[in-house]
L-fuconate dehydratase
Amino acid sequence: MPRITSVEAVDVRFPTSLTQDGSDAMNKDGDHSAAYVVLHTDADGLAGHGFTFTIGRGTDLCVAAALQRAEPLIGRDVGELCDDLGAVYRELQSDTQLRWLGPDKGVVHLALAAVMNAVWDLAARRAGVPLWRLLSEMSPEQLVDAADLRYLTDALPREQAITLLASRESGRRQRIAELEVSGYPCYTTSAGWLGYSDAKLRRLCEEAVAAGYNYVKLKVGASLDDDIRRCRIAREVLGPDVHLMIDANQVWDVPEAIEWVKALAAFDPLWIEEPTSPDDVLGHAAIRKAVAPIGVATGEHGMNRVLFKQMFQAGAIDYCQLDAARLGSVNEILAVYLLAAWFDVPVCPHAGGVGLCELVQHLAIFDYVAVSGSLDGRVTEYVDHLHEHFVEPCVVRNGAYVLPGAPGYSAEMYRQSLETYRFPDGSYWTARAAGAST
Amino acid sequence: MPRITSVEAVDVRFPTSLTQDGSDAMNKDGDHSAAYVVLHTDADGLAGHGFTFTIGRGTDLCVAAALQRAEPLIGRDVGELCDDLGAVYRELQSDTQLRWLGPDKGVVHLALAAVMNAVWDLAARRAGVPLWRLLSEMSPEQLVDAADLRYLTDALPREQAITLLASRESGRRQRIAELEVSGYPCYTTSAGWLGYSDAKLRRLCEEAVAAGYNYVKLKVGASLDDDIRRCRIAREVLGPDVHLMIDANQVWDVPEAIEWVKALAAFDPLWIEEPTSPDDVLGHAAIRKAVAPIGVATGEHGMNRVLFKQMFQAGAIDYCQLDAARLGSVNEILAVYLLAAWFDVPVCPHAGGVGLCELVQHLAIFDYVAVSGSLDGRVTEYVDHLHEHFVEPCVVRNGAYVLPGAPGYSAEMYRQSLETYRFPDGSYWTARAAGAST
């Protein structure tokens, strides 16, 4: 009976600010980073890997918080933990002293995500299946037991969640077979970072079309003139049929968002993403009403399930972009998927950063197989970036994620990558500091 | 020209869990704590003191975050900082890498509160006046420049905020004179902690009436039978005229909150506080509609101004209980007071914990003098607890805060208290650890 013997947490930072990969109107100089957690066990070769995604400074805070969050796991029986993943989540989440620092938001919640991501990875590895399959083989009752429905029962009582999942049970096998052929559709954001030149934007749009993408996303929001010019270039290259999405990364107040998006309406964007504060449910509802038929999307900074519940209740968004490393892992993500299906809002998970693509492919596949049972309006983000650090990187073919086959949550990074990019004492950062000081 | 020479941050924890002071349905074992910040200067005797309030584990995270937040202040000219308190707030707040870990919520935001509370304390000390007077002598334009109105302009454009403040300018002096006589009204929570026996509850209610309080608050939410018995005791002692408030500290889902509060309606509570998740704007609106005329109050876990904006827009609360150490200091608190006045919702700040009473007295006084100009429905929390650690503790007489006269934000703790209760190496904690290990 294997036990968890120790918890390792690593502050790993990649120097993406040097190339402006990932640059947008709010985040001009992010170093894509992770607070990376390993749950070591005494079973040969068995460990759980997870992380939360960060962009540089403060990753150390998430690492310190993750060690506190994970402390109750040390010495615990792996089988008992994996047999009741709702119980372990509730145990870690209910530390009332840490809860005060949220609740369910900010550093302590990101840390919970990192730790529980590692627990779910461990559970899938122990079962010898990829996470999407572990979830797809759970019964409706098991899924609802694992989900965090606290504060959601006014919108979705437990019994209705079970009924919803049960209604989708019969087609699971067929939908898996479909995805094994076609993959799960994705779009690319790699073309449209704000720091890229017009020539690079044009070339990357051309490459996206050539690679079979039906969706391309551009960053906007720093300068309206620039946005008009960049959207024109993109629309020229994409033609009328490839979908163009735009993403403002929270830079606008509500009235400005409405005005700016209307000025870009001629380029027929499918959605405006993060038009304002991620906390502003009523603001998103107002923007949605004003810019229709352009859709409103948000969620990568959606702090918890209570926010998403309200987004759905208020009819505030057309697309739910939950984040696999910001919500409290699969337990809270399950709740948001259930709510989204109940309110009939498509979930198009946020990805990119470090390793988010690796995680969200599992979630999107599971959603199609067992929750929404639909691909309508659903397309998952993909950014071709930093995958080389992962032992089982996601694979995209013809604008679709290929179903991952290896056991786990695809979260494991190469030891060499951790050692090179560990902050501040990995070899990359020590060399850079030495270079800076000469 | 004095400069900031260094930043000190202390993890200070008081062992309140031993006596159940502060116990409620959600937080049964809090050790009231603070991430305490001192901005040292090279001017003789001039320093800024501030903190955020925590309840034990994780205070170290806030301390580490505060040091990162405050780093840009080191070496800076005190006069320049104090002459544009909006600029320094925006500079610290706009660190995009730390922003990713919120934005504007959780540990990084609590840390911003701690640091900016110290900056405001420094500014008031430098001016030689208590903080409430510093604010009360600022012009409408200066106040609005200091306020964080980002993401709020759909509800309250800058010009309207200035107009609102200007309309209250003429009576400032008279209202100060009034408060110098009567103080600012407060209520006590000291009677009603959940862990107290019935006999202690009865005695403390009797003492509260004898001390002149017109408002008494009880914790509820763990057991309905207990709540009915405790409310009956309280109402018996208080009689029909003293207001009784009840506080559930977020333990209920929305349907349960409605049912439970209705079961306590016979005891005529003035408000139900924190009936559900602090993030649930629409949930509070639903509860308010269902339990009227009992009022709904929340805010001590209100993470930022965007949440409060929506609480007001949705008509979700009757009382706004902002927290002086959770919001981003005076800059963000100003914005919430302005919104509250605009929407005509009384602000009754959360206090208690460590030092929150010391802070909120300044805010409440300033609100009456310069923002709302009203005392209607306004009563500030007071808990008789841990004041002995403060150099200038708040003073309550006849159920009202006496106007503080010393320069600053009343935030300074005795050095001896810091040294005794610093975690884990202060003398109290080392002695306790030694005792535990024998």
About this structure: Chain A touches chain B through 61 residues (CB under 8 Å). The mean pLDDT of chain A is 96. The radius of gyration of chain A is 21 Å.
